[in-house]
Amino acid sequence: MPKIVVKLQNKWLDVKEEMLHSFIRKLLPIKSSQSLIDYIDIIPGSVTIIYHVHDCTADMLKEHLQTKLEFMHLIGVFSLYINDNPPVLQKDENMNFTFELALLEAVTAGNNEAVEFLLQLKTVNIDHTNEEGKTALMLACERGHEDIVHSLQSAGANVNIQDNNGWTALMIASEHNHISI
């Protein structure tokens, strides 16, 4: 039975336990009904989950997690080990990590899975802007990520916000010839 050790950015301290359950379910290749409460260890500055995965081999788990690297990085995982093997994911902890910046990065990367997950957190300011005054919706319109545009609109993104140049999301979509948006 493999053991995973997952370290999450410090903003995960503010997330409700049910979202940690949702995160683990999203991460694992099999459905798990195991309780998480006994496996969460809060260390100053980050959240660490030590979890024994039933009905799965270490090799199967590693293969599956390799397909989730971008997702994990985007939502704030900075370290993941299986048993005592070399890390599947190892980055420096980002003390400036926020779910708002993660959402902007996930939209820019076109990672719909990460966008959907971050929107489920309910603590994310969906209309947060980057240094250019662009929201996640504007970035999705700029890049033509139609599915992400729909997800953001369904989650209540404000379509009337203007960036630093006075452009709205619709104007940006039009400028980049994304007329289906």
From TrEMBL:
SMART domains from the UniProt entry: ANK
InterPro entries associated with the record: Ankyrin_rpt (IPR002110), Ankyrin_rpt-contain_sf (IPR036770)
Matching Pfam families: Ank_2 (PF12796)
ANK repeat start and end residues: 132-164
Protein name, as recorded: Uncharacterized protein
Transmembrane segments: none
Keywords linked to the UniProt accession: ANK repeat, Repeat
PANTHER family in UniProt: ANKYRIN REPEAT CONTAINING, ANKYRIN REPEAT DOMAIN-CONTAINING PROTEIN 16
